[in-house]
Amino acid sequence: MLRYLKLFRADLLSAQPARLYRAWMAEFRTPFFRSYMINQPELVKTVLKDRPMDFPKSGRIAEGLRPLLGNSVFLSNGETWLRQRRIIDPAFEGGRLKETYPAMWEAAQAALARLKVEAGAGAEVEIEEHTSHAAADVIFRTLFSLPIEHDVAQAVFHEFRAYQRTQPILNLAAFLPLPRWMPRFHRRSTRGAAKRIRALITELTAARQAEIVAGRAPDDLATKILTTADPQTGETFSTEEMVDQVAIFFLAGHETSASALAWALWLVAAYPEWQERLAAEAQLLGDVPDFADIAKLRLSRDVFREALRLYPPVPMMVRETTCPERFRDRDVPKGAQVVLSPWHQHRHERLWENPDGFDPARWGTGNGKRCAREAYMPFSAGPRVCTGAGFAMVEGVLLLSLILRDLRLEIVPERIPEPVAFLTVRARDGIWLRILPR
């Protein structure tokens, strides 16, 4: 078990045997718990869609993220989770996406300007740094109406970068049944970064609450969430509750978007024929933000979906059984861990045609359409599907198209990225590209 713990902390993906890409189900036993990975679409549907309340988020996984995320919607269960979603979901409805689009456009233009400076110098660029910067800018502009250049926004961004590099998905508490009073063995650097991030977010949240009381708050996502009352209880979020939610918005919206966009840019650099098709399609974008343009970018959307298939930012999700179950003629005891793995299901040899190949055209085929319904879950599925899934798709498609409209990307042959899973799927030594003006 210590060997597995070391592997999991180093890289979640390397700890998995290759046969999982063909298995419908697999069991992992320790002296303290049993874990079952399920890839069969019918079983995944049972857990995520048919009976989600019977399979709550696993407390073992929450152990590692609790110092930063508190009791956010990402970690909570039951009535607490239902209440949080009733308050949060209205902020991300379709109409709100259109309202946030101008702020997203401004962040995309700023990111493009930074990359053009690099292109002018003809440098080899570590693109993950740029996509992280861009995704953080999108979050701050849409959530708090602040550009990334704002002092507090800058501080949060840099602290999150430090946190991402020091926080493994699993820590020792995920493997051992520790009582609540025992220390959780978080790294000192991780605890420190989480504390500083929460202090900065508290500062932003308190300032926004004061602006709301004074009647001068901007109409952005933070204002919408802070002023939305639970329709059943009439309660709004307290400052501490809002800090929990902002932490997960930033972690989910910044980390996952940065990861997905970086891999998408590397893939189009590796497949220049697709890059040229996207560059031609991107000419449909005007010079001013128009939300209707997003619907025109069909190829860009297919490429971004394919990047999410091959490199899902969140590679695994863990649920817990609340009662004994029987899966594939095997007894699954109460309290067992149920692992759902987008990483394995998206590359499953018995589900997808050419599972490891980059093929954005697959979404128009019979196999692609069927798998999109049954075996594609980069944002999870069912009632716990990511609140910001629509937001992320607009952001990714816009940034991908704008960058390729003005710039040409080339891979660096001696620096082929190797995917590893920390908090999200990133490259072990970064993703390096050569950027040139068109």
TrEMBL record:
Keyword Oxidoreductase in record: yes
Give the InterPro entries listed for this entry. Cyt_P450, Cyt_P450_E_grp-I, Cyt_P450_sf, Cytochrome_P450_Monoox
Q: Name one Pfam family in it.
A: p450
What keywords are annotated for this sequence in UniProt? Heme, Iron, Metal-binding, Monooxygenase, Oxidoreductase
Q: Does the keyword Metal-binding apply?
A: yes
Which superkingdom? Bacteria
Stated family: Belongs to the cytochrome P450 family.
Concerning PANTHER family, the annotation shows:
BIFUNCTIONAL ALBAFLAVENONE MONOOXYGENASE_TERPENE SYNTHASE (PTHR24291:SF50), CYTOCHROME P450 FAMILY 4 (PTHR24291)
The name this protein goes by in its record: Cytochrome P450
Question: In which organism is this protein found?
Answer: Alloyangia mangrovi
